[in-house]
Specification:
It is found in: Cell membrane. This is CDP-glycerol:poly(Glycerophosphate) glycerophosphotransferase. InterPro entries: Glycerophosphate_synth, Glyco_trans_2-like, Nucleotide-diphossugar_trans, TagF_C, TagF_N, Teichoic_Acid_Biosynth. The protein is an alpha/beta fold and 743 residues long. The chain has four domains: 215 residues, Spore Coat Polysaccharide Biosynthesis Protein SpsA, Chain A; 92 residues, no CATH class; 170 residues, Rossmann fold, CATH 3.40.50.11820; 180 residues, 3-Layer(aba) Sandwich (Rossmann fold), CATH 3.40.50. The protein contains 27 helices and 22 strands. The mean pLDDT is 90.
């Protein structure tokens, strides 16, 4: 029997769940169990729990067959708990370092009380940590163990269950369970505190309470479910009615009830406008029905609100709040004026176009900051031409890149009147990065964020922890992401990361990457054509080298001596070099090009054709590895500076431990791998297979079709995925030549 049982209810938290579990499993105290309850979560949370349970026997997972809500999910976990004490932890929150040791030691020092109350702090997306404003109530003044009557001010702590450890026999004896509905913490918290004979406190932050920017918080959800608060306080007072010995608490709990009702009524973003009067009248009825004899109203404005509630004076209450609303309106108008002033910098023309109706049949594409017609947006463009030819497809292209636009593609030059017209009028905006800050998200406009890779390196808000991103304005970043309606993902790993690091109100589309469809569907002819376009001889082996950008280096300086590598590999091997698009042209690349020892493909418009042409990929930390893995061809990770890169930029997993194939950390080792053929060994193939199954799970050749049908055609029926083991992929260069040789 463990000392502590932690009950963790889980629902739609795949982006936060690993951090929650890691915070528990990483504690220096080990005498605990985790009862994790998958409340029929529609995302990847259940699979994450199962994976953790496979690695650690202290985790017990319950998969509910229907969504029952937070309270009843906790009940399901409580039934399975075996510990002497039970703690509740919400699955987007975390434990602070050493929390369980501190809790266990305090329980022992206070003689195993029925309830131990500990502290928490709020954490925010921008890294702020704010202490509990009533932390003073947890100071160890007076007896170490006490009844609530000796410290009634504890009722003024936030009404939550996860800042306490409960002795399990006390829970059983008291008959405590969680009710359904919103505000389920109130009956449990109040009824347990007033019932306990022995309470202790711990003046230490043990829980980090995540304040999610978007989603996951009922307090920010407009719904009639906020009416559940009436049922919760009915349960509280039913408990009092059943326990005459607790009658002294009617006054304090009446005050808590009224304060809670007023909070729900007054806070914006909770009650639908048309339900506010009904809520007020029900609150007033509860007030009059439960008013204790001799109750003294609070002084000042709060007491005035109590009086209006007692009289059921809804009109008077609304009149009293008008002045407050008026002040808010004045402030809002001031902000709007400032925003209009800022937007005026966009130009009179853009402003005029924003006032015109949207063009329901116009799609504006951009890729890599309008540098090219490429990536996921280009694949979606092509599929739109097939499935929705009535839509007009236009690309935003920088003036210095228009000569690279393929023939027949309609485009507008970034900064031109036509560009601002398209931004203002297009129904659909598709990009693999973000549009500029100046772009206004119009009502009815749909922004589709395709991304341009599976993240190995940290992204979004996670970059705040690393020195490479100290100059990034994260508030502006999230304002840009607030414009997204859809976010595309090629695997559940990415979905969980995007939802955490870009915490905005978009819909995740787990479709696969449209740009990878060709890697599944291409045949021998496409492979031969890609090689011929690069001048690769039949039978020649081609290695594609794709290093990524390093923030700590000012320009492109390959960590490989490419000329020497070419010489070592011999004349039958061609090196295709594709520098990161951040670098552009560089003297070093020009010198290598003149030597003729490599083929510089940095300016090639379609990286997918390079993938088709190459026999193997050499890369360091580029997301190219995730896409190239779709082809099931050899991948060699060349990582001579892994320690530096992972420390400066941060990564989501250890690439040296979970690579997509062979790994080299020096040029000599790389040359040995390539020369001996060990880069294509059985061991390397096994690593590649595991990597593919994890990161290419949605790439079955139909990603673009899924996106077009959902976003542009409104089809809500998902296209089924081809089972992983039944998927094909483009033939290798050697396989593509076989028909030619037989002929």
């Amino acid at each position: 029997m463990p000392k502590l049982s932690l009950v963790v209810p889980v629902y739609k938290v795949q982006g936060y769940l690993p951090e929650c579990l890691d915070s528990v499993l990483g504690q220096d105290y080990t005498d605990f169990e985790i009862i994790a309850v998958d409340d029929c979560s529609p995302d990847g949370s259940g699979a994450i729990l199962d994976e953790y349970a496979r690695r650690d026997a202290r985790i017990h997972v319950i998969h509910l067959t229907e969504n029952v809500g937070l309270g009843r999910a906790r009940n399901a976990g409580l039934e399975k708990a075996q510990g002497e004490y039970v703690l509740f932890l919400d699955s987007d929150d975390t434990l602070s370092d050493g929390a369980l040791t501190a809790i266990s030691e305090r329980l022992a020092a206070t003689g195993d009380p029925e309830i131990l109350v500990f502290d928490y702090a709020r954490t925010y997306w921008d890294g702020q940590v704010r202490p509990n404003q009533r932390a003073d109530l947890l100071k160890s003044d007076g007896p170490e163990v006490f009844r609530l009557a000796e410290r009634p001010q504890l009722l003024d702590l936030l009404q939550i269950v996860w800042n306490k450890a409960y002795r399990r026999d006390f829970i059983t004896r008291t008959g405590l369970t969680f009710p359904p509905g919103y505000y389920e913490d109130a009956p449990w918290t109040f009824c347990s505190l007033i019932s306990a004979e022995r309470i202790a406190v711990l003046d230490r932050v043990c829980v980090l309470y995540r304040q999610r920017r978007e989603g996951g918080n009922i307090l920010k959800t407009v719904s009639r479910k906020h009416f559940d608060v009436f049922d919760q306080y009915r349960r509280v007072f039913d408990f009092l009615d059943a326990h005459e010995e607790l009658d002294r608490w009617r006054g304090p709990l009446f005050r808590k009830m009224v304060d809670h009702y007023l909070t729900v009524l007054e806070r914006p973003g909770r009650l639908p406008r048309e339900a506010r009067a009904e809520f007020f009248h029900r609150a007033s009825a509860d007030y009059r029905a439960r008013l204790p004899k001799g109750f003294q109203k609070p002084a000042g404005g709060r007491g005035h609100k109590y009086a209006m509630l007692e009289r059921d004076a809804y009109a008077a209450m609304m009149s009293a709040s008008t002045a407050v609303k008026l002040r808010r309106t004045v402030r809002k108008r001031t902000r709007d004026a400032l925003n209009r002033s800022k937007r005026s910098a966009m130009g009179v023309h853009y402003q005029s176009q924003l006032r015109l109706p949207l063009d329901e049949n116009l799609v504006l594409f951009s890729a890599y900051w309008s540098r090219s017609v490429s990536c996921n947006p280009a694949a979606i463009d092509a599929e739109l031409a097939r499935l929705a030819p009535h839509l007009r497809r236009v690309w935003a292209i920088r003036p210095d890149a228009v000569d690279q636009v393929p023939k027949g593609v309609e485009y507008v030059r970034v900064g031109s009147r036509a560009y601002w017209t398209a931004l203002a009028r297009a129904k659909y905006l598709v990009n693999n990065v973000n549009f500029a800050d100046a772009v206004v998200k119009r009502e009815g406009q749909i922004h589709l964020q395709t991304h341009h890779g599976t993240p190995l390196k940290t992204m979004g808000l996670d970059q705040q922890k690393y020195p490479a991103s100290t100059d990034m304005n994260f508030e502006k970043l999230l304002e840009r992401c607030d414009r997204w309606d859809y976010s595309i993902s090629s695997n559940r790993f990415s979905t969980a990361i995007w939802e955490r690091v870009y915490p905005c109100s978009y819909v995740s589309l787990e479709t696969g990457y449209p740009r990878n469809d060709v890697l599944v569907n291409a045949g021998a002819e496409e492979v031969r054509r890609a090689r011929a376009a690069l001048g690769l001889a039949d039978g020649a082996k081609a290695f594609l080298y794709m290093p990524t950008h390093r923030e700590y280096q000012p320009g492109f300086t390959p960590s490989l001596d490419l000329a020497r590598l070419a010489e070592e590999l011999g004349p039958d091997v061609t090196l295709l070099l594709r520098g990161h698009y951040f670098y552009g042209s560089s003297p070093h690349i020009a010198e290598l090009r003149r030597s003729g020892r490599i083929v510089d493909v940095s300016g090639h418009p379609r990286v997918e054709e390079l993938y088709l042409a190459a026999d193997a990929l050499i890369t360091d930390y580029s997301s190219a590895m995730f896409d190239y893995a779709v082809l099931d061809r050899p991948i060699i990770v060349y990582a001579p500076d892994w320690d530096i890169y992972s420390a400066v930029r941060g990564t989501y997993f250890d690439l040296l431990q979970e690579p997509p194939g062979a790994v080299a950390t020096s040029q000599a080792e790389l040359i040995r791998l390539l020369g001996s053929g060990d880069y294509d060994s059985r061991d390397a193939a096994g690593r590649r297979d595991a990597f593919r199954r994890r990161f290419c799970e949605f790439d079955d050749g139909h990603a673009a079709e899924r996106v077009v049908r959902r976003v542009f055609l409104g089809d809500q029926t998902p296209l089924p995925f081809v089972p992983f083991d039944e998927r094909s992929h483009a033939p290798t260069p050697a396989q593509a030549l076989e028909p030619v040789e037989r002929a």
